[in-house]
Amino acid sequence: METLVHRDALARFGHALSDSTRAQILLSLRTGPGYPSELAEQIGVSRQMLSNHLACLRGCGLVVAVPEGRRSRYELADPAIVRALGDLIGLVLAVDPACCPASDAEACC
């Protein structure tokens, strides 16, 4: 039975994935923990932008910051997120190009 908690969790996950930078962060952390400076370089964004997206992902409950001295290591909050991302990557979508053209995919829906 679906509950308000389930709907909230799905809405948070959807919000996190609705931005391509946040999606890239999650995919990067799917393979293992990362540090902000390395993630920013890997993804190609400023550290400030990455910091804002990490704060959003923490707020959504998808990532956690693990303090290591003066630095923090980021990792996915739950191993189930790794599996969920894998399942989502493996989806075959029946996209209607008239509704959601490839060049406008981020603005779609």
Automatic annotation (TrEMBL):
Q: InterPro entries given for it?
A: ArsR-like_HTH, HTH_ArsR_DNA-bd_dom, HTH_Metal-responsive_Reg, WH-like_DNA-bd_sf, WH_DNA-bd_sf
SMART domains on file: HTH_ARSR
What PROSITE patterns does the annotation carry?
Answer: HTH_ARSR_2
In what residue span(s) does the HTH arsR-type domain sit?
Answer: 1-96
Identify the domain of life.
Answer: Bacteria
This chain belongs to which protein, by name?
Answer: ArsR/SmtB family transcription factor
Its source organism is Rhodococcus kronopolitis
